[in-house]
Specification:
alpha+beta, two-stranded antiparallel sheet, globular
C-alpha cells in the first residue's frame, strides 16, 4: 500500500519533504502543556516543529505510540 510518505534523510532540506507534510494530521493528547501553549500563543491550525523521543504507552485507555517532546517551536 502506497502512503506517499518518504523518509527524511539527515541533511535533507525541509522543502524536499514539504509535499507530504501539508497533508499529515494527528489526533493527540498532551499533559502539562497548557502553560507552554499559552506562552507560545498557539491557535488551532498553527504548525509546529517538534523534536521528540518515540516510545510505547501501554495504558489501557491511552495506549499506543507515545511521543515525548524534547523541544517545540512555531514553524516559519
Amino acid at each position: 500500500m502506497e502512503t506517499g510518505l518518504r523518509p527524511v534523510q539527515a541533511g535533507q532540506s525541509p522543502a524536499a519533504t514539504q509535499s507530504w507534510r501539508s497533508n499529515v494530521t494527528f489526533k493527540a493528547m498532551g499533559w502539562g502543556l497548557k502553560e507552554s501553549c499559552d506562552q507560545m500563543q498557539l491557535l488551532a491550525g498553527d504548525r509546529l516543529d517538534i523534536a521528540y523521543q518515540l516510545g510505547m504507552n501501554d495504558h489501557p485507555e491511552f495506549g499506543g505510540l507515545e511521543l515525548t517532546l524534547q523541544d517545540v517551536v512555531r514553524s516559519k
